[in-house]
Design a protein that fits this description.
Number of strands: 13
Distance between the termini: 49 Å
Shape: globular
């Protein structure tokens, strides 16, 4: 780790929220780590993102968990680009999108999110799981590194009952890779805001890219999945328990090594200029049809910012 990055993160080393804590485990391997992982904790960021919308409780919980999961998945990126986590279904919630922009060569991230739902269907007390809310559908993960690279997208059907089960199936089906994920969120009764957390473990292949064997009784993968499962939702969401301390409680005998945390903040990529460019591609007649009393109103689905335009000049009103 360079001196520049050490100095950069020194002032946030005591922060316990709104960050991704990367780590790896030697887990008995003599050279190099056997397992890699990321632990994400969200506090104010989750509250800020959800606060831009008026979601019912079950939808807020689903979005908060999606934010933690999306950040954790994006935490593997080491370049500046856009990572999108999206789930579509035929249930009361038809769409959840988490959009993550990486900054500073993958050392900080901006998150935004939104959900589409049928309020008349969010009335049942039986909506206890992601499956109940989303129904049948699919999960898509997209990585966009910019105009000079080819965009990657992985797509799988939803298998399981929870977001972590959906994602574990994605890695097995699309990436042929084992991944263990624990995910939780809750409404903080003291602050009134949503907290969310996610921890993820993945195998690290040998240099020849062979998968670690699972046949051995003392397989590090099985052992550390058991250790990870000893953590509780209460500990993962504890605003006074730092990610490093939590990881040490779980894996202190497994050759734990933590790296510099990656910072998270709420941010939206919408802008007046971007919307003008989009509207400029439409015929004038269509722009006039979109207007109401001579004004086109555009609301960003992510941040709920409202933009008003003159359909003739496309200047902001």
């Amino acid at each position: 780790m360079t001196e520049r990055l050490d100095l950069k993160f020194r002032n946030v080393s005591l922060s316990v929220d709104d960050l991704i804590q990367p780590f790896n485990l030697k887990a008995g391997r003599q050279e190099g780590p056997a397992l890699s992982g990321r632990f994400t904790k969200l506090g104010n960021l989750t509250t800020e993102v959800i606060g831009k919308h008026k979601y019912p409780g079950p939808v807020s919980k689903l979005v908060s968990e999606s934010l933690a999961l999306g950040a954790t998945l994006a935490g593997a990126l080491k370049f500046d680009g856009v990572f999108t986590f999206q789930i579509q279904g035929d249930g009361p919630v038809s769409l959840v999108v988490v959009d993550v922009s990486t900054k500073d060569e993958g050392n900080s991230f901006e998150l935004r999110s939104y959900a589409q739902y049928r309020s008349d269907r969010i009335v049942s007390s039986d909506l206890n799981s992601a499956r109940d809310l989303l129904g049948e559908g699919y999960m898509a993960l997209t990585v966009d590194q910019g105009s000079n690279t080819e965009r990657y997208q992985g797509l799988v059907e939803l298998v399981g009952d929870s977001l972590d089960e959906f994602t574990q199936h994605y890695f097995k089906q699309s990436q042929q890779m084992d991944a263990a994920i624990m995910l939780c969120s809750e409404l903080d009764q003291v602050s009134g805001g949503w907290r969310a957390s996610c921890i993820m473990l993945q195998r690290v292949a040998e240099e020849n890219c062979e998968k670690l064997s699972s046949s051995n009784v003392d397989d590090p993968w099985r052992r550390n999945m058991i250790l990870m499962a000893t953590g509780t939702n209460r500990e993962m969401l504890d605003p006074d328990l730092s990610p490093k301390r939590y990881l040490y409680r779980l894996f202190h005998e497994e050759g734990l090594r933590v790296m510099s945390p990656k910072l998270l903040r709420c941010g939206c990529r919408c802008s007046k200029d971007r919307l003008v460019r989009m509207l400029s591609q439409l015929p004038k007649e269509e722009l006039l049809d979109l207007s109401d009393n001579g004004i086109i109103e555009v609301t960003c689905e992510f941040c709920s910012e409202v933009y008003l335009y003159d359909p003739i000049s496309l200047e902001v009103s």
